[in-house]
Amino acid sequence: MPIHRQRRTGGKAALPAASEDNVGSIFFLEKSLQPGSTMTLHFTCATAGASLLPHQVADSIPFSSSKLPEILSRLSVDPSSEMASSIKKTLVECESKALPGEIKTCATSLESMVDFAMSGLKSKNLRAVSTSVKASELVACHAQGYSYAVFHCHTTTASAYTVSLVGADGTKVQALAACHMDAASGVEEAYKKLSVKPGSVPVCHFLPQDDLLWARV
């Protein structure tokens, strides 16, 4: 999928090959964000149309690995199903420790997501963006596999770019690319694949279409 940008960021560079072409699984260098670069990408939705629950309803449902049988029963999910596996995986990820300097939560409602974004960015004047942002201090919210909408939100420092993509079949996408200097989740392995030292250059990836970034206005 050729990349078209509104602004150049550096010299021409080949994008790395990847065994998986899910949009969040491919990492590349910031200088690759320029017209003419190509890669194979699949934009997917982790939530598959899952609904956001009202705050009071979400808070009434257990959200803990220790309560997994009760959760599956409350949500009428077959314990042997793929959805049950997704729920278990999401709970484990939500309960994992934050990275050094990171603050994280799993938001089970829009209200809890907004509250976390305001707390993490120390501001009530925020905007949610999924296609463009110019801030460096952000709260990123990644959609998780669950019976209802759950977002894994965390504070992060990154540069973000709007990128115009055109597919081989002419499909056009306005995508959001985030470039990290730190070894965030998944980025550590990307440094090895790109043959660069951690922290030496930003490592970038596209965000899936159901992810959100929060920034100060």
From TrEMBL:
Pfam short name (any one): BURP
Domain BURP: 27-217
InterPro entries in the record: BURP, BURP_dom
Keywords: Signal
Entry keyword Endoplasmic reticulum: no
Listed PROSITE patterns: BURP (PS51277)
Protein's UniProt name: BURP domain-containing protein 3-like protein
